[in-house]
Design brief:
Helix content of chain A: over 70%
Number of domains of chain B: 1
CATH class of chain B: Mainly Alpha
Number of helices of chain B: 15
CATH topology of chain B: ABC transporter involved in vitamin B12 uptake, BtuC
Strand content of chain A: under 5%
Shape of chain A: globular
Largest interface: A-B, 54 and 54 residues
Largest sheet of chain B: none
Structural class of chain B: mainly alpha
Shape of chain B: globular
Radius of gyration of chain B: 20 Å
Number of strands of chain B: 0
Number of helices of chain A: 16
CATH architecture of chain B: Orthogonal Bundle
Oligomer: heterodimer
Distance between the termini of chain A: 19 Å
């Protein structure tokens, strides 16, 4: 009798494996629940939630031009999520993508401003691409170096690097790179420094899709990808197997920063045609959630980044049509993230009730 | 001299905002929870604090009572912060989801809610949401009587601040005493350092993590409200508030997770953030001032990790969730 009382009513155990179909059912259900919870803020504004969701879908997908705008929002999210995936696989919490995007954009902008009249179109774009990648990579390398050498907390370090990068752009904007005196604006890029469009959207989406495939191969089919996975599972195992953990960390962070830097290049050269301090605009943070919710699977990232882009683009239409503040996109995104994060619990853990367990024992 | 005094006063005003954010996050992180949602929490605190005071004034009309309005603003901000961090605690402590990602999600969610409430009030009240001038001055005026404020130099520096500043200092001292002198506080530190050991000693990890995170979130939220009510002049202003939460996260590192350091640390950071408005040093562009706090934080972070002294480290389990069966 006493032993029975000592077993808690409800306890947890790790689940070993779950039917993949069931896993996807849980995930889809969590998205559905999130969308239903999203009714609440819409109802508070006195609108019909179904109509509101209709407007969101309509405003983001109903016409080719809307689709193009939606894709334009999704591309940096996707690119940056790809950048973050190897770091998070390694359990290196790089939340500095925002800064790495910004530094990539700075380097690309340098060539766009000062070399546009000296170089032909494609060599110029190639140099902007490479310099963006190198600048983003080097910016990411700084925290990685300190993590490898002195085990400095990388979450906090990369976070601080974001604001330093943004501050540097703010300084460039009002100082050395200022266009018209007093405008606080960097001049627009000449046509020479703008990347071409494919199907009406800047060709960054092609680059992003190529990166999806490359990243999938890198993570699953190469030795380096395997090393990253081992470090993520256990640093000690990796050391015991003779891996140079510090070196792998720095290499992976450089790669991650480089991809973020390329995203920065795509944003300035494909979307904004200029540089300002808000160039990353939260993409670096949102893409972390994209990467994580995709289970670091590059193909799933396409779907998740599109979903968030639809919400964002659709909410702008919602604001103009129904006078619902566009910040509803952030709220629904937040709810979506909460639900999808929570649902992983039911995939990874098993709830055991005291009552049921006794039955199992009897059988 | 007057410039210097004005600088100190302005630094304290902005520093007070940071102090609440930082103190809340220190309490949270002491339990091993790295809540990166402070930015969102402070937005919610700002919006709900303003809403609380605004609707109270609307209901009370001419009979509006200053101290009561302040209390209502504090309580509604605190409640909003508690609610936000309760979501965070549920997802990370009970459901054991990744803390970084959950924190970022809370940031997105909280800034969304804050903006939404701010906008919603603006639209539903027909254009402009602001407190009456009488209440506005009550929020922003010194708490001490004029004869103390008018003491040359010292009066302005020590007695001219709002009630929120003195409350924050009191809170810092109380938190120091709690963490250092009480059994509960030491248990909390133990939970943050080594949950497995604390669990074996019979401490309820879940209860400590939940309580520290929700109360910490409530305290951080008050910071957002103080910003809206003092610096922003009782009007919803999301641009001014953006980035403040992240600065509070930086300050926690700078203060080495010690509440008493938060007092001078936040005033110092406050000074760095507003210095560009008051003092101009030739050859240093104003924008560079603004990144100073972050650079200083990075240097502190690097130096402490290089020295590796045992009493100047983040809580050892910071950022990791605890599951008893995982070894």
């Amino acid at each position: 009798m006493s032993t029975e009382n000592r077993t808690p009513l409800l306890r947890l155990a790790k689940r070993s494996e779950m039917d993949p179909r069931k896993v996807w059912c849980i995930r889809v259900a969590s998205i559905a629940i999130a969308l239903i919870l999203g009714f609440i803020p819409i109802l508070l504004t006195g609108n019909n939630p179904f109509a509101a969701y209709g407007v969101i879908v309509q405003g983001s997908l109903s016409r080719p031009i809307y689709i193009r705008q939606t894709v334009k929002i999704a591309v940096p999210l996707l690119g940056c999520a790809l950048a973050i995936a190897p770091c998070f696989k390694m359990k290196f919490w790089n939340i500095g993508a925002e800064g790495q995007i910004t530094m990539g954009a700075v380097a690309a902008t340098y060539f766009a401003l000062f070399w546009a009249d000296k170089l032909p179109h494609f060599p110029l774009l190639a140099i902007m691409f490479i310099s963006g990648a190198v600048a983003g990579g080097l910016w990411a390398l700084i925290p990685a170096f300190f993590k490898a050498k002195w085990n400095t907390n990388e979450t906090l370090f990369t976070l601080m690097m974001n604001y330093i990068a943004i501050g540097i752009v703010a300084w460039l904007q009002g100082g050395p790179w200022e266009g018209r005196k007093g405008s606080q604006l960097i001049p627009m890029f000449s046509d020479n420094a703008r990347i071409p469009t494919v199907l009406g959207v800047h060709c960054g989406w092609v680059i992003a899709l190529v990166l999806v495939v490359l990243m999938y191969i890198y993570m699953n089919r190469t030795k380096q990808g395997y090393e990253i996975a081992v470090i993520g599972d256990s640093v000690n195992t990796a050391r015991y197997a003779g891996m140079n953990v510090g070196w792998i960390m720095m290499r992976t962070m450089f790669l991650s920063g480089a991809i973020s830097g390329i995203v920065g290049f795509m944003i300035v050269s494909g979307a904004n045609y200029t540089l300002y301090s808000g160039v990353a605009n939260g993409v670096g943070f949102t893409s972390i959630t994209v990467a994580w919710l995709s289970q670091l699977n590059s193909f799933a990232m396409i779907a998740i980044s599109m979903m968030l882009a639809i919400l964002e683009k659709g909410s702008n239409t919602l604001q103009t049509r129904m006078e619902i503040p566009a910040s509803i996109a952030d709220i629904i995104t937040g709810i979506l993230l909460f639900c999808m994060l929570s649902c992983e619990f039911f995939i990874n853990y098993r709830l055991i009730f005291r009552h049921r367990e006794r039955k199992e024992v009897n059988v | 001299m007057t410039t210097l005094i004005a600088l100190v006063v302005a630094a304290v005003t902005f520093g007070t905002v940071l102090m609440y954010g930082t103190l809340g996050e220190i309490l949270t992180e002491k339990s091993g929870n790295l809540n990166l949602g402070v930015e969102g929490i402070m937005y919610m605190g700002g919006a709900f604090g303003l809403a609380g005071a605004f609707y109270y004034e609307k209901a009370a009309g001419a009979a509006v009572n200053g101290p009561l309005a302040v209390t209502i603003a504090i309580l509604s901000a605190f409640a909003a912060g508690m609610a936000a961090s309760a979501i965070y605690s549920f997802i990370t402590v009970t459901l054991r989801a990744n803390q970084n990602v959950t924190g970022l999600a809370l940031s997105i969610f909280g800034t969304g809610i804050g903006q939404f409430v701010g906008e919603f009030m603006r639209v539903s009240e027909g254009g402009y949401v602001a407190l009456s001038n009488g209440l506005k001055t009550f929020f922003a005026s010194p708490v001490f009587p004029p004869f103390l404020v008018n003491i040359p130099v010292a009066g302005r520096i020590f007695f001219s601040h709002t009630v929120f500043f003195y409350l924050a200092v009191l809170l810092a001292v109380l938190m120091y005493l709690f963490l250092q002198k009480t059994r509960c506080g030491m248990y909390l530190t133990a939970v943050g350092e080594s949950p497995a050991t604390s669990d074996a000693a019979g401490i309820s990890i879940t209860a400590y993590k939940y309580l520290a995170t929700t109360i910490g979130g409530g305290i951080s939220a008050i910071g957002g409200m103080v910003y809206i009510m003092t610096t922003a002049g009782c009007v919803w202003n999301h641009e001014g508030l953006s980035g403040v939460g992240w600065l509070a996260v930086a300050l926690v590192i700078f203060c080495m997770w010690r509440p008493l350091n938060a007092i001078w640390g936040s005033i110092l950071f406050g000074a760095m953030m507003i210095m560009y408005l008051r003092v101009s040093i030739p050859f240093i562009p104003t924008e560079i001032y603004k990144i100073l706090p972050y650079i200083v934080t990075v240097i502190v972070l690097v130096l402490t990790s290089m020295k590796n002294s045992r009493d100047k480290q983040p809580p050892a389990s910071l950022g990791n969730n605890y599951f008893r069966e995982e070894r």
